[in-house]
Design brief:
Elements: H1 9-19, H2 24-27, H3 32-42, E1 45-49, H4 53-61, H5 66-69, E2 72-79, H6 93-114, H7 119-122, E3 126-133, H8 134-137
Helix pairs in contact: 1-3
């Protein structure tokens, strides 16, 4: 009987695809080959929030091949919360400054992470950046 990890990578990828992305993490610990194949699927489309940038940097930098698996990256920049009554008001200069600082800090930190990647790693990367406050989530339906 042939060991399953001895199967060609293409066959293993098809098997892992059928398992669904929710269960792939447990298969990454089977062996090195399965780890790479499961991470290739798991890391292909990531949703990243600004409060998780340090985790993202640690996870990506801990294994050199992970960044090249990312094809789609959605970056959600979390802006400061505000009171419900403020929803009907224009932003004050102070609120605008806080939002600009949160946005700028996130973008600078994010570009700092990307600057460590090679040109091949970022080639073909699709990046979607959105900025939103937690307070907006209760006021508007989620955008698709």
């Amino acid at each position: 009987m042939t060991e399953i990890s001895a199967l060609p990578s293409e066959i293993l990828s098809l098997i892992l695809t059928q398992l669904g992305s929710a269960s792939l993490a447990s298969y990454a610990s089977v062996c090195r080959k399965w780890q790479v194949l499961s991470e290739k699927q798991t890391f292909s489309h990531l949703l990243l929030t600004s409060d998780r940038l340090s985790d993202f940097k640690r996870i990506i930098s801990s294994s050199a091949h992970r960044c090249c698996f990312i094809r789609y990256l959605d970056l959600y920049i979390l802006l400061p919360a505000y009171e419900i009554a403020a929803r009907t008001q224009l932003e004050s200069q102070i609120d605008r400054q806080k939002n600009n600082e949160a946005f700028t800090q996130t973008i600078v930190s994010f570009w700092d992470i990307l600057s460590t990647w090679s040109e091949e790693d970022v080639a073909g990367l699709s990046l979607n950046i959105r900025a939103r406050s937690f307070s907006d989530c209760g006021a508007e339906p989620d955008e698709k």
